[in-house]
Specification:
Order of helices and strands: HHEEEEHEEEEEH
Structural class: alpha+beta
Radius of gyration: 22 Å
Distance between the termini: 74 Å
Number of helices: 4
Largest sheet: 7 strands, antiparallel
Number of strands: 9
Strand content: 25-35%
Shape: elongated
Helix content: 25-40%
């Protein structure tokens, strides 16, 4: 009886691994794992700015004449938008940008589905890309890329004072071509 009990105890970790694997594959437990990472990454895209050494802003809403050879990916759509200019921020300009960036308010339920971004953003720690997204202030969303889930949309409070300040700050660096139906950014909220 004793050797049988020892054999059962030794096989218990393997049985647990098989059960977890079955749950992940057949009970769609992988969604819990990846969506959890998706939400954490969406929250951290703005708040995790410690050690950022460089930010690159890409103008995506420009005129045909402004288009450069650069392109910026809109990952959930699987396309790239032509960049109409870009700027690299370091030093004091980076610090001013991050003081606005870090206070954005991501929220899952605050989004529409259009996504016509004015700007694309890449944040670096040394030479490592740590965040990439495009932001649409019109429909209050940005994209989040999480492996192996892929890319998806996440909302933020685009009408807040700090979000409008970020838009105005980016607009002062790289003015964008507003469409006739979209009102100019304001600081009234």
């Amino acid at each position: 009886m004793r050797p049988r009990l020892q054999q059962c105890i030794r096989s218990l970790p393997w049985l647990l691994l098989v059960i977890i694997g079955l749950h992940l594959v057949f009970c769609e437990g992988w969604k819990d794992v990846t969506f959890g990472r998706f939400h954490r990454k969406a929250q951290g895209i703005f708040s995790d700015v410690g050690g950022i050494t460089e930010a690159r802003i890409y103008l995506l809403m420009g005129t045909k004449e402004q288009q450069t050879k650069e392109a910026f990916p809109i990952r959930p759509y699987g396309i790239s938008e032509p960049a109409c200019g870009s700027i690299v921020l370091t030093g004091d300009k980076l610090h001013a940008f991050l003081n606005l960036w870090r206070w954005q308010s991501p929220s899952w339920g605050r989004q529409a589905l259009c996504h016509a971004p004015a700007y694309g953003f890449r944040l670096y720690r040394a030479s490592t890309l740590v965040a990439e997204t495009s932001i649409c202030w019109h429909c209050s969303n940005f994209y989040v890329d999480v492996w192996p889930f892929g890319s998806g949309w996440y909302g933020f409070d685009a009408d807040s004072k700090i979000a409008q300040e970020l838009l105005n700050h980016c607009d002062s660096l790289l003015p964008y071509a507003r469409s006739k139906e979209s009102p100019p950014a304001s600081n009234t909220k």
